[in-house]
From TrEMBL:
Residues 141-200 form the Hikeshi-like C-terminal domain. Residues 8-136 form the Hikeshi-like N-terminal domain. Signal peptide: none annotated. The gene is 100116148. GO terms for biological process: protein import into nucleus. It comes from the Eukaryota. GO terms for cellular component: cytosol; nucleus. This is OPI10-like protein. InterPro entries: Hikeshi-like_C, Hikeshi-like_N, OPI10. It holds the Pfam family Hikeshi-like_C.
Length: 201
């Protein structure tokens, strides 16, 4: 499968030097990864995947004190021969727990000082399921963030609430009834529960 896969980092030469590190597992390094935002993984067109197979794409930040901690990005296949992945927002190794520590043959003594992209050749049915789970997790994470953010906002605003009797007249200030903010909060939560992507419309 030599030359089957390629990697593009913006502003750099194309890399095709994926190394076979295990059965159906390939690895490539990315020096100076802290300065990049996106990577593109693609099939070069020289050799296709076997029918029904594709390549799961994983990323690992460099960590001089720990073995690679692999994060699933997505996949490429004969029907989807390239994919762009944003890596600038991925967590560093010490920020999360992951059960993909040894997926590319890393042992507890294997330390990487460069970022790495790993490709694991697997059945498409498994890859599609992994991608669906990753998408669902990302959606759930966004919903959790949005709910915590609006709850924090409501709590913050509520901490300044006063009754009309307590209000001091100030012609330079505008006042919004707390009931209006609570109504907005309830509407936002209801719409978020119905469709987490409603705000994109």
């Amino acid at each position: 499968m030599s030359g089957m896969l390629g990697l593009i980092v913006s502003g750099r030469l194309v890399q095709t030097d994926f190394q076979l590190v295990g059965e159906n597992k390939f690895l490539i390094t990315i020096p100076d990864a802290d300065s990049i935002n996106h990577v593109v993984v693609f099939l070069t067109g020289t050799v296709p995947f076997i029918d029904g197979m594709g390549g799961a794409v994983y990323f690992s930040w460099p960590d001089p004190n720990a073995p690679p901690n692999w994060q699933f990005l997505g996949y490429v296949s004969n029907n989807k021969p390239s994919a762009i992945f944003k890596i600038s927002n991925l967590k560093k190794n010490h920020e999360f727990e992951n059960n993909n520590l040894g997926i590319f043959g890393a042992t507890s003594t294997t330390i990487s000082h460069v970022a790495q992209i790993g490709i694991s050749v697997e059945p498409l049915s498994i890859l599609e399921q992994q991608a669906a789970v990753a998408t669902a997790n990302a959606t759930n994470s966004f919903v959790d963030f949005a709910q915590k953010m609006i709850t924090s906002f409501l709590n913050y605003v509520s901490s300044f609430s006063v009754t009309q009797a307590q209000m001091t007249a100030n012609p330079t200030e505008n006042f919004v009834p707390l009931s209006s903010i609570q109504g907005w909060y309830e509407t936002f939560e209801r719409r978020l529960a119905q469709n987490p992507n409603f705000w994109k419309a």
